[in-house]
Write the structure tokens for this entry.
Amino acid sequence: MTQSDTLRRIVLMLPALVAILLLVGAPLGLMGWVSLLEKGTTAGVDWGSAPSIGNYQRLVWEEDFDGTLILNTNYLVIFLRSVLQAAVTTLLCLMLGLPVALWMASLSPTGRAVMLLLVTIPFWTNLLVRNYAWLIILREGGWLGMAVDALWPFGPVQLLYNDVAVAIGLTYSFLPFMVLPVYSVFEKFDWRLVEAAHDLGATRARALRRVILPVAMPGILAGSLLVFIPCLGAFVTPALLGGGKTLMLGNVIQMQFGPSRNWPFGAAISVVLLAVMLLAMTALALWRNRRSA
Amino acid sequence: MNIRRFPLTREISLFVLAYLYLPVFVLIAYSFNANRTATVWTHASLDWYVRILNNPSIRAATWNSLVLAISAATAATVIALLAALATRRAFPGRNASETILRLPLILPEIVVAVATLILFVAVGIELGLGAMILAHTVFCIPFAYLPIRARLDGMSGTYEEAAQDLYANRFRTFRRVTMPLLWPGVLAGFTLAFVTSLDDFLTSFFLSGPGTTTLPVYIFSAIRAGITPEINAISTVMLVISILLVSLSFALTRLRR
Amino acid sequence: MAETNTVTIRGVSKAFGRGDAAVRVLHDVSVDIARQEFFTLLGPSGCGKTTLLRLVAGFEIADSGSIRIEGQDVTHAPPFRRPVNTVFQNYALFPHLTVEQNVAFSLEEQRLPRDQIRQRVGEALEMVRMQTYARRRPSDLSGGQQQRVALARALAPRPKLLLLDEPLSALDLKLRKEMQIELKQLQAEAGITFLFVTHDQEEALALSDRVAVMQGGRILQMGPPREIYEAPTHRFVADFIGDINLLDGEATGGGVRVAGGQTLPVQVSRPGPVTLAIRPERARLVAAGTGVMDATLVHSAYLGTATLHKLQLASGGDFLIRQSDPVQAAPEKGSRVGIALPTDALQVLQE
Ligand SMILES: Nc1ncnc2c1ncn2[C@@H]1O[C@H](COP(=O)(O)OP(=O)(O)O)[C@@H](O)[C@H]1O
Ligand SMILES: [Mg+2]
């Protein structure tokens, strides 16, 4: 490797780096700054206002008439709901995704390729459209609604616009993110380890718990992160299936940039979202380091 | 006993496949339903497809989406190709470069979208098609990058050494050997970038100015206004396009030299 | 003065990696290769043969030292500016081009006129007897055929020097023997200098005008095959090439005293422990008490062209004798025999 080779590679890299730094790095930096400003009267931001952490305080406290701060749980509830929804979705994805990955690994090469394609296709199809499909199924008068009504004797059931509908939609949206990394671990898995475990008298269940799951752990954690992070910032699913009743962070952010026109406050919520994401990633990295150490 | 088979995994997998695909099939079925209320099945018809063909808003949105996806995917593919050629071999800063390339994949889209909105407004970039092309290009880069890099990784460097040995300079080597061997990866990358851009809703939602709605943004506002069979039809069209293109990209990556 | 060497390598060193992780792969290597010589780098896997070849081809740049080809300094020149072509270990035929297009590649890069390209491609393919495969793709060819195309492709531009990195190692034994002969003929016909790399000592001895034996990034010995074989200067060279018997001894004023045997009249520059080497076919089996030392016959194997005797020395070590005399009844297994060592066949080794 020569100096000119290094230079050539850096030059080739430049367009990508400049594009990403200018259109991802710079916006995020600016957003951090805006989160400290005040909202403008006409535009979204009052660029001349003095920076303060007021927007972050507003997430938890609100000013009373006489200027004392009282606890405001509105945003806390939404925050907790988002984290909880993301956690529940991650768990559901794991409960469904792990068996799928395990089963895929037991198939013939052709079977694997077909399953891989089948699991990947939803990932590439329009998220909005796929959530809309659930809207059709779950709505009042839809065929699932009618079926449930027929079986359920205590009056009409509302399938749509609640936390369960959102959880169904989120799990549906992000399931491939769990299956793929877990499967990639099983694909490389040395099944003789399981044979050895059986040989040593382990039952199927114990072989699963003591041999397969530990080996699959890196995939499970990677998948969990890949589900958790986009869930936390989900907008489409709660907007369509939550019907504005069960708001998540993404919806609140959108409201600040849409109808409320309070960009600095929206920026502050976005920063909080990023912080939670970083926290989750750091936790994972620490866990990985501890394991490899 | 097959040690790889675990009880219930097959049943759960079939359930998951149904879970993933049933809604899609329901949507497609409804798109062919003649009944206006969209819940009662009367008989099959292509009415709604004819309707969307003649709907000027949908035609405009489709046009915008195509221009956007082609521009963004082209730009992203070129940028990703250069980046993949750079990161193919070690150089100081390769790891940092690869992390930065992955950024658009990891960050929650809504956060990047609103942050871009703030930046564009702050520096005076007008919202609309141009703004969307810029933003889409960036999040398409990693999608174009991955298949190109995978192709390069599977490609022995000796072909290029052989070309240089046979008196082709770096540029000629790239044109006569690297590119011909790489093109399935480049095409796969372009296809994935195209699909990603075509399907994007959130970024376009925040950056589309008045009069430049894309198809997903149009669909979203249409759903807000009430479910109609037209939405089913246009959604079906989008689904089918995505599935076809992704399958194409898959086939390309599996293409032998 | 006109240059008589095709290649002049002077004091070349090369390390991979940086800082503490750097591994020195070549240590101060110097080689001269004469015009039209068949020169071979021989050594075990990992000794740096490929690296040296890649330095000459221009795929790597030396950390220090210089490389000249036909008198021209190419130490820092890129591969496409060196009058050198390579036959790669796995052939590296362009999979998207036909045989013909592969062979024409370099001629097109050199901007030769069309009809000349066609003629040269025809000649090159004819030389390796592959004319009938001109329109095929490399993937349709067998290993041996790909090998020929790779040769034709490298010879088409008529380079001053052809580099071959274990070109025959992917072929099966029979084909390898055939190709060896063909290679040698081709080299004589084309009159091109060959720099050949192999880890197969038989191949090296059979083909080369001169051989350089490498170990750990250094050239230990360089010379014609006969000299390398019969007069190895290093224990490693002696051991690496063919079977050899090694005897520990003590150098004194009058010669070398072999452990448990006589003093042999071998000239050694300074006294001290030395190792003597002798090829199994140069030692002879004689009656006990009449040779340099006595040993016990462990085993005799009739090989058709010769008989291989395995003896055990008093020191416990093994000793091989390959006797090709017209059949002479071998002594009984377990009997005492003598070993005769012609002085001119003895080689004093450095470690
Ligand atoms: N590009 C490289 N980076 C790091 N080490 C290398 C590289 N190329 C070769 N080496 C190392 O240099 C040594 C010599 O390699 P090589 O020249 O290929 O040996 P040979 O051809 O004799 O088998 C080996 O230990 C190999 O691992
Ligand atoms: Mg080698």
